[in-house]
Structure formats: C-alpha cells, structure tokens
Design a protein that fits this description.
The protein has about 160 residues and is an alpha+beta fold. The chain contains two helices and six strands.
C-alpha cells in the first residue's frame, strides 16, 4: 500500500509507492529512440482512436463526439498504476480518512507515515502523439489545458480527496 511520509527534519512530504515498481513497461532508453515522433502512433494508448486502451475517461474537452471516443482536444483518465490509493479502495478496506491534526512521531523515527490516499490522474494534453504542452501556442490548447486542470482541482476538492 502506498504511504505518505512526512520528514520532520526537512518538513517535506513524500509518496512511497513500492507497488509502482511492478509496472509492465519502463521508459525506453534514449539510445532506443526512433528519432522524430510521428503525429499519431497506432500503439500509443494516448493517441486518438486508441481510447479503448485507457481506463474510461474522467473528463474531456471535445468539440464533438461521444464519451471515450475520438475528437477530443484534452482528455483525463485514471492512472492505471496510481501512486495513491483511490478513496473508494481506502474506504473499502477501512482506512480512516480523517486527516491527522498533530501526527504522532515515534522518537526513533525521522518521519511519520500514513496511507497515501487520493487521486492520480493522467492528463493527455494533446491529441498529437508528437505534441507537447511546451509546443502549444497560446491560441492552441494552453488555455483549454489550464481550464481542464482547474476543473479537475475543483472536482477533487469538492470530493474532499485527501
């Protein structure tokens, strides 16, 4: 189970999710690169037309089309390999989601830990396989991307996701 650790020396939080080491694919090394990325990749789960390769979408900005279908500009899906335990799973196994006001730290430890519960989503910022947020002009997806992020933050805040 993922843990949220608070380091009392540095005053920082860290998510420790050892389960993520079991992911089926790792990033390819730079030496294995194929040069210039194509506009669409038939094997990429984040490219239009491959929506069935991802979990059902949570949110999307599209001009036309159906849920979990093509014609989207930005798409949000749950992470298949989340670093955080989803709230519904935490509730099912009986984890108390009440935030600790003053966590108790064992004198022999330099950090305290608690289950890492929350949302871990993937925001697909462009339907172009070779598209990047940095490559967007201010007239393209950047305003839509920021709107999408704002909406997701507000939804998660309203759900009181820890």
């Amino acid at each position: 189970m993922p843990e949220l650790r608070y380091d009392i020396l540095s005053g920082t939080y860290t998510i420790v999710a050892s389960e993520r080491a079991k992911r089926p694919n790792d990033f390819r090394s730079a030496q294995e690169g194929e040069g210039v990325a194509p506009k669409l990749d038939p094997k990429c789960p984040f490219c239009p037309g491959n929506e069935n390769m991802t979990p059902p979408e949570i949110s999307a900005l599209r001009d036309e089309g159906a849920h979990d279908g093509p014609n989207w500009r930005i798409r949000v899906v749950p992470n298949k390999f989340p670093a955080l335990l989803p709230v519904r799973d935490a509730l099912e196994i009986g984890i108390d989601l009440t935030p600790a006001e003053n966590p108790i730290v064992d004198d022999s430890s330099i950090y305290w830990e608690t289950p890492a519960v929350g949302a871990h989503e993937v925001v697909i910022e462009s339907p172009k396989h070779n598209g990047t947020l940095g490559g967007c002009s201010s007239e393209e997806n950047l305003p839509s991307y920021l709107t999408c992020l704002t909406r997701r933050y507000l939804v998660l805040y309203d759900q009181k996701v820890p």
